[in-house]
Write a structure and sequence with these properties.
Layout lengths: L3 E2 L5 E9 L3 H12 L5 E4 L8 H4 L31 H14 L6 E2 L4 E7 L4 E6 L2 E10 L22 E3 L13 E5 L3 H12 L3 E5 L6 E2 L8 H9 L1 H16 L10 H17 L3 H6 L12 E2 L3 H5 L4 E4 L3 E5 L2 E4 L4 E3 L2 E4 L14 E2 L6 H4 L18 E3 L12 H16 L5 E4 L1 H15 L3 H4 L22 H8 L7 E4 L8
Parallel strand pairs: 2-3, 2-7, 3-4, 5-18, 7-19, 8-17, 9-10, 9-17, 10-13, 11-12
Antiparallel strand pairs: 1-2, 5-6, 6-7, 14-15, 15-16, 20-21
Helix pairs in contact: 1-11, 5-6, 11-14
Length: 498
């Protein structure tokens, strides 16, 4: 069955509507299409696929997970250029997946979702978008948690005399050579960006609120012989992926507060710092004062050397205020700047799409999550029938590939779609018990007890609501098979098994 078309060929109704054409949305679309389930559409607010890899085009953008693991297990790529793929190459890979799997007709570009409301009379979702209305029996949010840039509140920022932008909205029209550039933040984007700015001839001031832990990256290009070998031996590619996965899984032990593995991990990071930063004063400023893993551990071989260049200044405090070209740090130090770049991350604990999703009782998902995000199987929410959330509550990882988690959630959703019920709603008790179990598991992790504030923690409650407190394999074992027992079911539809 295919979606019912409008006069212009766009459907008004589909069995499944997916919001977002990044890794999660494309992956689910591919699996649905392969299963012969064509009655779905993917709504994408931009004019191209790719999600965060489409939006982030700042100099140096690349993945922190080896490319052979940061790709679909069911559509692997043999010819990655590097161990850690550049962002543009990942975006190209996603575009190639869409073309090869024939997904283009199912993706509606330039279509921003404005509201999604459950209609209890019709047992379907009503969606209002920037390009018309839709209805769907099942709604899947695949918008991700790195889609809405987060900007800090800075006194006088509106008076800044030069260009200012977030790394996720890079302004390529600005020539940074010879410019005085302030970089606000020292997270994963900043450690990739700062060496590139220095190499491009910019004078850089890095505003550091807290020092990150950094470990060696060890990136390299794949040789033509290696790429040719993988292309001709898919079993070898499978083995390489499995080896990377196993090595990454071992890293979860480092997330236990006070563990020997965490101590070893810290020694590795501090050894990297000592080898690359000879200046004792600079090294002190770059030494974190919290347990490793409490914040995201970064990987780089060129960030520390860049901070030692005479054209780069590390300011060991946050940006406090701006007046014209003058940027003043919380320490009181002032700097004249031509450009301000915000490497300040994304809205993660209060996902923006939650404000537009309205459930059975008339309340929003954001209201349901007023004490922090929660979902049964990290995917379903009581009061929101036939809604499935990918890459949402407690479904990310701090040690392995997000794609592994996305694929597990896709399996779960496919299982739900194969159920004969027209409407499925998880019980409040199941959601509550699952959330309480994960809260208990989180209690002894470095994310909760590591002595830092991070984007993993909900600022309203202090709950860790983003990361699964276990291995990726444990998540798959727990959540890859759909079990209808915790769900209230009603009606029936005649769908072929998926």
């Amino acid at each position: 069955m295919s979606a019912e078309p409008l006069g212009d060929g766009r459907p008004t109704h589909a069995d499944v509507v997916i919001i977002g054409a990044g890794f999660a949305g494309i992956g689910l679309g591919m699996r649905l299409r392969r299963a012969g389930h064509d009655d779905f559409v993917i709504l994408e607010r931009a004019e191209a696929v790719g999600g965060t890899w489409r939006d982030n085009t700042y100099p140096g953008v690349a993945c922190d997970i080896p490319a052979q693991l940061y790709s679909y297990s069911f559509r692997q790529k043999a010819d990655w250029s590097r161990v850690f793929a550049p962002g543009a190459e990942i975006n190209t890979y996603l575009s190639e997946c869409v073309a090869a799997e024939g997904l283009e007709p199912s993706i509606h570009f330039g279509t921003e979702s404005l509201e999604a409301r459950w209609d209890a009379r019709q047992n379907h979702w009503r969606l209002t978008t920037s390009r018309g209305d839709y209805t769907a029996r099942v709604l899947v949010t695949a918008a991700g948690r790195l889609s809405e840039p987060k900007l800090p509140t800075v006194d006088g920022l509106e008076t800044f005399a030069g260009p200012r932008f977030h790394t996720a909205a890079w302004d390529h029209s600005v020539d940074l050579a010879g410019k005085r550039v302030g970089v606000v933040g020292t997270g994963a984007s900043a450690v990739q960006l700062v060496p590139q700015l220095a190499a491009a001839g910019a004078e850089v001031v890095v505003f550091q609120r807290s020092a990150p832990y950094v470990i060696p990256r060890g990136d390299r290009a794949y040789t033509p012989a290696e790429r040719e070998f993988f292309a001709g031996h898919p079993q070898a590619l499978d083995r390489a992926r499995a080896d990377i996965f196993r090595a990454a899984e071992a890293g979860f032990a480092q997330k236990r507060h006070g563990s020997a593995e965490a101590a070893q991990h810290r020694e590795r990071a501090l050894g990297h710092l000592e080898r690359q930063v000879r200046d004792p004063a600079l090294r002190r400023m770059l030494t974190p004062d919290y347990e490793i893993g409490c914040k995201r551990v970064l990987i780089s071989d060129d960030y520390y050397p860049a901070l030692g260049l005479p054209t780069v200044t590390l300011e060991p405090s946050a940006l406090g205020s701006v007046a014209g070209i003058r940027a003043t740090a919380a320490s009181g130090a002032g700097y004249d700047l031509d450009v301000l770049v915000f490497a300040t991350g994304f809205e993660t604990t209060e996902l923006p799409f939650s404000r537009i999703v309205i459930g059975r009782s008339g309340g929003t998902l954001a209201e349901h999550w007023k004490h922090g995000m929660s979902a049964f199987a990290s995917t379903s929410v009581h009061g929101f029938p036939n809604l499935y959330i990918v890459d949402g509550p407690l479904a990310s990882l701090g040690h392995n590939s997000a794609v592994e988690m996305i694929e597990t959630q896709i399996e779960y959703i496919l299982g739900a779609l194969a159920e004969p019920a027209q409407v499925l709603e998880v019980s409040a008790e199941a959601e509550r018990e699952y959330t309480a179990e994960l809260d208990r598991a989180n209690a002894d992790t470095v994310w909760v007890r590591g002595g830092c504030s991070s984007w993993y923690l909900d600022p309203r409650t202090g709950r860790q609501t983003l990361l699964w407190p276990g291995t990726a394999r444990a998540f798959r074992d727990r959540n890859s098979r759909f079990d209808p027992a915790p769900y209230a079911a009603s009606g029936a539809v005649a769908l072929a098994p998926l």
